[in-house]
Amino acid sequence: MNHLLDRTRRHAAKSARIVGPPTLLTLRRWALAAVVVNIGITVTGAAVRVSGSGLGCPTWPRCTPESFTPVAHAEISPVNMAIEFGNRMLTFLVLAVGVACLIAALRLPARRPDLVRLAWLQPIGVAFQGLWGGLVVRSALNPVTVSVHFLVSIGMIAAAYALYARAGQGRSEGVSRQPVHRHVRTLAFALVAAVFVLLVVGVVVTGTGPHSGDEMASRFGFDIETVARIHADVAYVVVGLTFALAFALHITDAPGYARRAAWTLLAVEAAQGVIGYVQYFLGVPAALVNLHVLGATLVWLCALRVLFATGPRGPRDVPEAVTGERDAVRV
Predict the structure, then answer these.
(1) Which of 181, 183, 302, 310 supports an S-S bond with 188, CB 3.0-4.6 Å?
(2) Cβ 316 vs Cβ 264: under 8 Å
(3) CA 265: distance to chain centroid?
(4) Is residue 148 packed enough to be buried (19+ CB in 10 Å), middle (13-18) or exposed (0-12)?
C-alpha cells in the first residue's frame, strides 16, 4: 500500500510540473514551434499557388457558396479544392501554437513585458492573415494582395524567432554586454534589411511570373526578364554583405556562435542561389518554385539568427528568471 501511495504521489508531482507555471524553456519551445508552423503555412501557401489551386475554394469564409467544407463543384477540380482547403485548415494549427506562446508568456512566474508583447503578435498576426486571406480570394488573387499575404508571414516568422531568441537571453539587469563591435552590428542590420528587400523583389518576380494560382488571376505588368535580373542583383548584394559580415566577425574575434551563424547563412544563400538559377533555366517548374520559397524562408530565418547572435546580451551573473532553469546565452 505504501508503495502504491508513493507512486501516486510521484505521478501527482509530475502532473503538477506539467500543468504548472511554464518556464522560459517552455516558452522557447512554443516559440520554435511557431517558427516551424509559420514557415510551413508559407510553403504550403506557395504550393497552393504553383498547383493552380488559389481559387480552389472560390469564396471566403466558406469554401463554396453553400458550404464551409469542400463539396463537389462542376467548375473546380476536387484536387485543387482539397489543396486550398487544406492550407486554410493549417491556419488553425498556427493559431493554436500562437495562443500557446501567449499563454506561456503570460503565465511565466516572472512575467516579462517584452516577451508578452512579442507573443501577442502571433494570434494577432493569424487573425490578420485570416481576414487578409479573404481579401486575396475576393480580389481573385490580385498579385498585390498575394504579395502582402506572403510578407506578413515573413513578419510573423520574425516575431516568432524574436520571441525564441529573447526568451533564451533571460532578463537583463544592469549593463548589457555587446559581443561584437558596433560597426559589425550595424553591418548585421544592413544585411537583414537587404534580405528583406530581396524578399520584396522576389514577390514581385512571383507576381510577374507564370504561377498565378489560377487562370483568372491578374499579373504585375513588368517584364519578367528585367525583374528577375533585379532579383539576382539584390541577391549578389546580400551574399556580398554576408561574406563581409562573416569576415568581420572572424577578424574581430567575435564569439563562435556569431561566426557560425554568419557562415551558416552564407551556405544557405549559396544553396538558394543554385535552386534559383536551376529553376530559371528550366522554365520555373512548380516543384522548384516551391523549394525556392522554402529556401527564402530559411535565408530570412538564418539572417535573423545572425542579427540576434550579434546583439547585446545581459550580464552573465543575472539571477535566473525561473528556478532551476539557466538562461541561454546563444540563439
Answers:
(1) 310
(2) no
(3) 15
(4) middle
